[in-house]
Design a protein that fits this description.
The chain has 464 residues and is an alpha/beta fold. It contains 19 helices and 16 strands. It has a domain of 220 residues: Rossmann fold, CATH 3.40.50.1100. Bound molecules: pyridoxal-5'-phosphate.
Length: 464
């Protein structure tokens, strides 16, 4: 399988190079040259497979020819051994034909573990084969950093540096990062905001001398391998609820558009999906672009679902690539416009193409809390604010009630004790694996918001 950049001016690469590159060097995102497709019979034969066996079948077509199948199976098994539920991503019923897909049973209690755990295995395997070492540098407002650290800890070929805004993450989120004491893990508490952290990572990436000196790599959600790993659970839920013999709909709490893009990919691969509902909180750039055809960046409003508080939804570029019939020059055009004026207008055809496949719904803070309360009252299940945005949107965009609706539950409620406590009275307990989180030793260094000082720190510590 070869991969092409959405902006058409970077070399075509194979899977392993796409994995290590992250972003294409023309600023675009990598997409497979075409979509591998399963027949109805093949999908019917997925029924009853374990999550791991299904994962093997879904991701195998992307990995290319010269991969050792036994090694792939072993990586998948190792990735999901860290999950605390035998089904990996279990389905829970909320109402008639209404389901929750629980994606938060991994080591850091958010859905990002599903992809990141596999990414850790993939990186390790490729780096060993190439006898190469890398330095992963990332910025986080919470969930991505902890999932990445947990996936990369203790690996010989990888050093990981995660910048978080000092005193601006929740204590659970900070401790999930700073209590990992492996020698290859480095937490930087930056004296600044999340945007400052992100700006520094971007500046380091654009500093070619530095990037090459430390073999810098990224793990943010534009990495194709993360999208690929997330396709699996759409098939897992879909087949459990009757696909390919009946269509299924999904609602996805969305920020960077990675998770819901994986649903689009599942549909391209043959899963009969009736509707994909984009659920946003008050940071509603995606809802607005569906309603108006104009993608326009505004300022971020902090909400109780912070992992969806975004301005620019980076994976949306992958959808645009298909919406514009894979015309890379059209993508360069809209992305230039975005960079110069903070906005672009979709062509009529692209807007229609997207509306045929997606619905979108914005959920405000009051409804987020009342939905946590409502689900708890009706079912006894406690859901987190991100999942609640999804459930509320799924109710608004329900459509045909004969079609099963699956809402993706993206975080464990114990990760967001304040909002959940406000809605249901009690703050939920951390699960047993994390019960002593508040008593563990922490390690991090506070650094000023200064590029050269952060670079000097990383150069001094990386083993590359
Ligand atoms: C990252 C995250 C999201 C948003 O996922 P995207 O792939 O960026 O759309 C939603 N919920 C939680 C809990 C997250 O951590």
């Amino acid at each position: 399988m070869k991969f092409v950049s959405t902006r058409g001016q970077a070399p075509e690469l194979g899977f392993e190079d796409v994995l290590l590159a992250g972003l294409a060097n023309d600023g675009g995102l990598y997409m497979p040259v075409d979509w591998p497709k399963f027949s109805e019979d093949q999908i019917a034969a997925f029924a009853g497979l374990s999550y791991q066996d299904l994962a093997y079948r879904v991701i195998r077509p992307y990995l290319g020819e010269n991969v050792d199948d036994a090694n792939v199976r072993q990586m998948i098994d190792a990735a999901y051994a860290s999950f605390h539920h035998k089904a990996i991503t279990p389905l829970t019923q909320l109402r008639e034909n209404d389901w929750l897909l629980e994606l938060y049973h991994g080591p850091t209690l958010a859905f990002k573990d599903v992809a990141m755990q596999l990414l850790g295995q993939l990186f390790d395997s490729v780096l060993k084969a190439r006898q190469k070492k890398i330095t992963i540098i990332g910025a986080t407002s919470g969930d991505t950093g902890s999932a990445a650290i947990e996936a990369m800890r203790g690996r010989d070929a990888i050093d990981i540096f995660i910048l978080h805004p000092h005193n601006r993450t929740s204590e659970v989120q900070r401790r999930q990062m700073t209590t990992v004491l492996d020698a290859n893990v480095h937490n930087i508490a930056l004296e600044g905001t999340f945007d400052d952290c992100q700006a520094l990572v971007k500046a380091m990436f654009n500093d070619v001398a530095f990037r090459n000196a430390v073999s810098m790599a990224g793990v943010n959600s534009i990495n194709w391998a993360r999208v690929m790993a997330q396709v699996v659970y759409y098939f897992y839920a879909g087949v459990a609820l009757g696909a390919p013999h009946r269509p299924i709909s999904f609602t996805v709490p969305t920020g960077n558009f990675g998770d819901i893009l994986a649903g689009y990919v599942a549909a391209q691969m043959g899963l009969p999906i009736a509707k994909l509902v984009i659920a946003t909180n008050v940071n509603d750039i995606l809802t607005r672009v569906l309603d108006t055809g104009v993608y326009e960046v505004t300022s971020v409003t902090p909400s109780s679902s912070p992992s969806m508080d975004i301005q620019v939804s980076s994976n949306f570029e992958r959808l645009l690539f298909d919406a514009y019939g894979r015309d890379a020059s059209a993508i360069r055009g809209v992305m230039n416009s975005l960079q110069q004026s903070g906005r672009f207008a979709l062509s009529t055809e692209a807007h229609e193409w997207i509306k045929q496949r997606f619905d979108a719904c914005r959920v405000d803070e009051a409804e987020t809390l009342s939905t946590i309360k409502q689900v708890y009252g009706e079912t006894g299940h406690v859901i987190d604010p991100h999942s609640a945005v999804g459930v509320a949107a799924s109710q608004h965009c329900r459509g045909d009630h004969a079609i099963p609706m699956v809402t993706l539950a993206t975080a464990h409620p114990a990760k967001f004790p304040d909002a959940v406590g406000k809605a249901v009275g009690d703050a939920p307990d951390l699960p047993p694996s994390m019960a002593d989180l508040f008593h563990r030793e922490e390690r991090f260094d506070v650094l000023p918001n200064d590029l050269s000082q952060v670079q000097a720190y990383i150069r001094g510590k990386t083993r590359v």
